[in-house]
Amino acid sequence: MTTSESLAKKDLSHVNLATADLTGADLHKTSLRGATLKETNLEGADLTEADLSHANLAGASLHGATAAHTNVEDADLRDADLTGANLRGARLTGAKLYEDKGCIACHGPGGTGGANVPLFNPAKLDRIEAPKSIGNFWAQATTVFDMIRRAMPWTQPRTLSDQEVYDLTAYVLFLNKLIDEKDVINSETLPKVKMPNSGNFITRFPEHI
Predict the structure, then answer these.
(1) What is the pLDDT of residue 5?
(2) Fewest CB atoms within 10 Å of the CB: 15, 133, 159, 208?
(3) Residue 156: its pLDDT value, please?
(4) 3-class SS of residue 16
(5) Would you call 2 helix, strand, or coil by DSSP?
(6) What residue ranges do the domains of the chain occupy?
(7) Is the pTM of this model over 0.90?
(8) How confident is the model at residue 189, as a pLDDT?
């Protein structure tokens, strides 16, 4: 299948478009939920705000595609070519990096914990012994960026690009329910993320402020 017509805002849920040539297709706000897009050519396609949740994109090419604020929850992107794709705001970006960069080996699937600590904990910080996590204890969201940039991945620290660090930071903040899955995290938005425990820290030397 090849197409030059606009498919924007159409309902293509669960359709079989495997191996189709959708180069440069206008698919913004299109529902492709559960669609089969295996080995489909989506190079340069506009997938802005499209719904690709549960879609099979294994082996698909999204080279240079625009997929900002796209819903890709539980999509299969094994061996997909995402080179140059604009996935800002898509939860997929950080989730895929989390696996590709080996974060999952230490922190487990979805940050639930493995050889190292989990990345989130829903416990309330109501006593000194309460389990502390990013979401319930850390004062600044920028610390997440700093920690990842300086120390991760554990086996190859400081090998991530700034954008990869932003994407992973967004994923960690999303896991902690501090941002929405479509929120964009960058140098302007990250400092604005409200951390629940930010007001409970005491300045040690207030006279030096």
Answers:
(1) 63
(2) 208
(3) 93
(4) strand
(5) strand
(6) 1-87, 91-199
(7) no
(8) 92
Take residue 153 and report the two structure tokens written for it: 């991945």
The neighbouring-strand residues paired with 46 are 26, 66
Query: pLDDT (tens digit, 9 = 90+) per residue, 111-124?
Result: 888 889 899 888 88
Token reading at 154: 């554990």
Half-sphere exposure of 168 (CA within 13 A, CB side): 27
Whether 77 contacts 98, CB under 8 Å: no
Distance CA 109, CA 104 (A): 6
Q: Which CATH superfamily is domain 91-199 in?
A: Cytochrome c-like domain (1.10.760.10)
Note the pLDDT of residue 158. 94
Architecture of domain 1-87: 3 Solenoid (2.160)
CB 50 within 8 A of CB 31: yes
- What tokens were used for 70? 């796209």
- Taking the C-alpha atoms of 50, 54, 60 and 61 in order, what is their torsion angle to the nearest 10 degrees? 30
Residue 153, preceding peptide bond in cis (omega within 30° of 0)? yes
Structure tokens that stand for 28 in this block: 């913004």
Q: Token pair of 90, please?
A: 């898509």
H-only helix segments in the chain: 91-100, 103-107, 142-151, 162-175
| Low-confidence spans in the chain with pLDDT less than 70 | 1-5, 74, 83-92
pLDDT at 12: 94
Q: Find the radius of gyration of the CA atoms of the chain.
A: 19
Closest alpha carbon to 27 in 38, 40, 12? 12
Residue-level pLDDT at 87: 64
Q: What pLDDT score was predicted for residue 207?
A: 84
